[in-house]
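Entry for the shared binder. Reason: the reviewer on the internal report wants the predicted structure included alongside the sequence.
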Amino acid sequence: MTLLELHLLATPKAAPELRHHLRAHGFDVRLCATELLTNVIDHLGEGTPVTVRVGGTAVGNRTRIEVTDPDPRALPVLLSAGETAESGRGLALVDALAERWGVEQGPDRKTVWCELRN
């Protein structure tokens, strides 16, 4: 069940806009959604069109966050960032906070998703 669906351009200004739309959700939901959006900016470039969906799951009392972008080839990779690294922690945060996460690929897009316990 989708509670929120936003069509955005992945830009640094979109992150606070996304957090504003998610203000009724907890910190972890806002953080994971922002990190998934930021990954699009970092790996596909500013201005990439994205769709963000946030809703409940049918099973297990979870909140599901999905970020869909138009590049099915650029898959997220869980990195082990060093203590002094300036990037590479976004997906590690999602991995630490989410019950589970993954990627669904289509012929002309991919959706990176995660589920957090309510």
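Summary line for the report: Residues 27-44 form the longest helix (18 residues).
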